[in-house]
Amino acid sequence: MHRFDDPASVFALKDCLITSQKLMDLWDRIRVHPDHLPADAESLVLRLDRGGAPHVVVSGGMKLWDAAPLAAAVAMGGVSYWWKPAEGAARVVHGKHTGYPVTAFEQVNPALAPSIRGAAVAASETFRPSRSGPLRGCG
Fold first, then answer.
1. What tens-digit pLDDT sequence spans the chain (139 residues)?
2. pTM flag (> 0.70)
3. Are 86 and 36 in contact (CB under 8 A)?
């Protein structure tokens, strides 16, 4: 984890009081097995999808990552392991393959997501531009 006031500095995260307990439990199991992560990994992101399923997204490197050893060490069911190479799209390398890319922007507070999404849709339905015509640069 990078410090907010010193992005070049990294510290070992032990607990985060604003993170889902499911993600903290997953993190507790992952952090004791750094040897199962790619040596050239640039980032590690833990996410919950809309249905509450956990995902591990490892970014960086060029060589395909075999997540099976980490999944076996973590021993937590229902986790999907993703790898996003330095030059390419994220893909599931272990666990359930989902149709929805967990790397896409998603509301991080699932309890509020429906009301936020509803408010955004409602606002877009009532939006009326103050002038008509093509947008600049759009022909």
1. 556 677 666 656 666 665 678 888 999 999 999 999 998 998 888 888 878 889 999 999 888 889 999 999 999 999 999 999 988 888 999 998 876 666 665 656 667 778 877 888 888 888 776 665 555 444 4
2. no
3. no
Going from the N-terminus, what domains does the chain have, and what CATH number goes with each? 19-125 (3.30.300)
In single-letter form, the type of residue at position 45 comes to: V
Give the up-direction half-sphere exposure of residue 132: CA atoms within 13 A in the CB hemisphere.
Answer: 0
Which H or E element spans position 83?
A: strand 80-84
Distance CA(105)–CA(72), nearest Å, equals 28
